[in-house]
Design a protein that fits this description.
8 copies of one chain form a homooctamer. By secondary structure, chain A is α/β, with parallel strands linked by helices. Chain A is built from 6 helices and 5 strands; from the N terminus they run βαβαβαβαβαα. A 5-stranded parallel beta sheet of chain A has the order 2-1-3-4-5, with helices on both faces. The longest helix of chain A is centred in the last third of the chain and has 26 residues. Chains G and H meet through strand 5, helix 5 and helix 6 of G and strand 5, helix 5 and helix 6 of H.
Chain lengths: 162, 162, 162, 162, 162, 162, 162, 162
């Protein structure tokens, strides 16, 4: 059994550069995670097994990235009660609009938390926010991040005046 | 084991009025079929079981209708080698564009035959065309249908002149 | 200080019929919540105050519904570290596409969990999933819900055969 | 008379690089095919002749690729009873959305099996699935392909752990 | 042989209420015309015959209305050298966007004059403009129409002031 | 007074590379034309003067190219009774969709003949078709062009077989 | 010469119900205005005259509403140096997207201030904001409006608690 | 207190190259301005402070640029009574459509003046038009600019003839 908090999954190794944002984010926040290649369309049964076992394996949350007719986040959400964050990935010609609609437009009863196209960093951050519900440490880190982010902008603004 | 040629599946009973076009079509052509409510998101494991057993159960082809983030056709296609015809169904606010992209934009290796939004009759007809590859009888029926369709238009055109 | 777990907010009382899905869902799951009318555009300072105080007021999660240039979810997310779930609401002529993009396409550093257009029930369900991370009771309820949902579909399927 | 199983047609030689996916796929599966340049708009009568003779020429199925106002798949489908698979090709400025809608949105009575934009490999695979209805050999090859595809993903997943 | 100047064609009798605008317009301008039901998808060979004979039959111009994957205007344009005006008709769920793109996005070498969705009156007017190139009478009528149209607006504007 | 048949106009010299297709086409067909930079937005009064004088100046037809909020074709059409062919030009970020809608969606009473995005060659060809109504010579050239176009495709098809 | 501050113009009397929002708004704020029917496409020369004389006629600002290929705001903006506020109006089938793009996507050098589809009230409000630059009285009214708007929301929020 | 007329703000320094058009325009017209980095999402409270103080700080008008879920213009407009001009900036994959809808589709009561995607020059020009209401000098400059712009086009047109 994994002791990791988050499972980051994606349908193909070629999605790794995009999903790297989530990896970096969780690393920055000290949230443990596993990365797995799990394809809804190429390994549907492995996906079922993975999703069904996710809770028992100790995961608290799943981040799933997918492009085109992006089924992975929605299917995983149908097989677990863990919160699932979906990252629509731009592949092919339609600029990620297909993936955005496939991830966001889930039917009543099976929720997916959709973030912006290719924005896996925000998926990581959203995971941290969800996990921080029961964790003071993570709460503090998120506040620090938010503050640092603010200060960086304020400094840019200040430097502009010189 | 079913002796039916085609499995018509959809995620919810509320899809039946739309999927009725496929039912009518197969009835017209004398192609045997079963109708099942199989939901990718609400009964994912039943869907896996259904899709995996489809070939052994004697089905030659699957017609799957779904709306919104329409995952059913694609997921079934990933679990069988039977041809899968997907019917994007318009539910909700985005006029079926979400379902159309979710059904059509499948990744390399897992094909779905997408027809027009809500056009389940064409899904039935496409099924007949596929099944006619090995069936003279069905071929003849399709030719008759095509001819009748043509004659109806020609008659309309002719009646207009009077 | 509120002892409620979730804050459900929306920009106008006219959004209540749509946001009722989230209310029903949280009621069904026995998750306490408050409902507030907080408008990003008409009460921006109240929104700031509300969002900044949310954590201290005991909320664990915020569900925010908004239509058109839907700024409420994103702005609230920028003012708290609590997870924010955004519900794009269809108002006006563009079928909710404007709200969907305004809610989903958040920049790096400020995540919003976007659900489907008008699907506030899923926002409630996603909230329950997030809150279940630290709650066995809620986990069990989610499993029961998922099972009931499954059984309802299976029964529909079964009844169809008669 | 051709003894080939599949006719792959496209409107212009410049479509060949995109349609090469279908060629590769059919080669991989040992399905015989012809490749023809048949333009709905530049050689409409040759198209009519080609489509009408397709069945007599021994073809079992037609794969048609087209871009822009992509009329080739739909027109061919109106002139034969063979199943027609349409590949929307991205040409020009609108990212293939024009071709996708022109191929998918066929009227009642004339079905086209639409695949994803530029995804001619899937058109080939869909053809194999249709032809496998009467062919044990092809069925087995499809299962092998599906398995290999699965194993490749599982291996990628496994290698990631090292 | 018809002595009519314009052929108004459409794929189905159900398109008549929309195409009535063109009929009214040509009637108003005293331009002779025939109305025919010619379907690209249901009577492809009749369409070929019709389009090829159009010039010999004395037509100077063709107005073709079609919805969905609207192939009629483009196909007719490929089979004649007469100018073809295409009217995208809204049928089905996608608000006429599919028809607009199918009519407008023609490839190099086969032009169609596309007008606004459902705006068959403008197709009639455009036909009159084209035919007026060699006709003083028609030119004068067009000027009168333009003037009347102007005066009606000016009168509305004037009446508003009272 | 110009003796040229066609006026090709565009809003900016930067549109010339796109509008060159129309120039080439008219040159190929021996149709005389003038090229003018006439901007709806930067030289509105010159545009009014130009459009109003077009008929008197001997032009039979106007081809107008424009991008973005492409007003030139529609405005010119409102100021003349000559047929106006509009070429939507892709400038900026929205892939020409803005120009396509601005050119095509004209109100009742003021028709524009819209061709495909950036396809000025077809605008030229459409002009030739319109002008051929009263010209045997041009008719013959159009038939020759159509035939040559057909033969080129047939030859490509034939060469493929070797 | 009119002593009115704002000119509200639209292409047709049928636009009045939508443009009524601007009328109401200016009435509420005590800003004088005229309402005129001025059509870019049906009265282009009147439009030119109107726009060119607007400044001399004492207008400080123009609000222009238009639907479809909405040219009125952009054309007026090209003929005056007064600020022009454009209201895209939903007419026809494309849900106002055509008007939105035609109004918003103006080229460099000719600005239009675009508001939301059908939201003429905001056009009136934006006019008041622009006019308030030199007017203490109007500034105060705008602050009062903003405050009243805020209080209405706060009261709704408060009433909800009971 | 700043004596500058216009505040140009944007969410990130990376927006500067796009917003440079507004800077150049105001420089050309001799309108004083400040440039600030103010992020709706990263410095929401600084934004509130900035927007609330804008009027007191002497600004007459605010230009705000933002991409993706572009909230800055709308939020600032909710916190001031100064006119706010929004520039939708193309970032990410959706070609600026997300930003355009987020900026333009504001609810009743909180107006933003939206210009074209990435067209910050027009935002500057629109600012000048608004400020010219009370300034003869600026009016004259705008007329000169409009004239120069016209002459440049006329000269291009003239040079073409040689």
């Amino acid at each position: 059994m994994s002791q990791k908090k988050v499972a980051i999954i994606m349908g193909s190794k070629s999605d790794l550069p995009i999903m790297d944002g989530a990896i970096q984010c969780l690393n920055d926040f000290g949230v443990s995670f596993d990365v797995n290649i799990v394809s809804a369309h190429r390994t549907p049964e492995y996906m079922v097994k993975f999703a069904k076992a996710a809770e028992k394996n100790g995961y608290k949350l799943i981040i799933a990235g997918a492009g085109g007719a992006a089924h992975l986040p929605g299917m995983v959400a149908s097989l677990t009660i863990l919160p699932v964050i979906g990252v629509p990935i731009q592949v092919g010609k339609l600029r990620g609009l297909d993936a955005l609609l496939s991830v966001a437009q889930m039917p009543k009863g099976v929720p997916v938390a959709c973030v912006a196209v290719d924005n896996s960093f925000n998926a990581g951050l959203l995971a941290c926010r969800c996990l921080s519900i029961g964790s003071k440490v993570l709460s503090e880190k998120l506040k620090k991040f938010q503050k640092k982010q603010k200060l960086r902008i304020l400094k840019t603004d200040h430097d502009l005046l010189k």
